[in-house]
Amino acid sequence: EFQDNCLLSFKELHWTDVLNRCADKHSEDEISKEERKRREAVWELFTSELVFFLDHLMVLKHCFMEPLKNLQVDGHLMFVEPLDIFGNLDELCYVSYTFCRDLATILITDKSSTEFGNTEALLNALIRWTELSKEGEVFHNYCLNYDCAVTYLEILRKYEQFQEFEKWCENDSR
Question: Which long-range contacts (C-beta less than 8 Å, at least 24 apart) are formed by 29-38?
Answer without folding.
Answer: 30/113, 31/113, 38/117
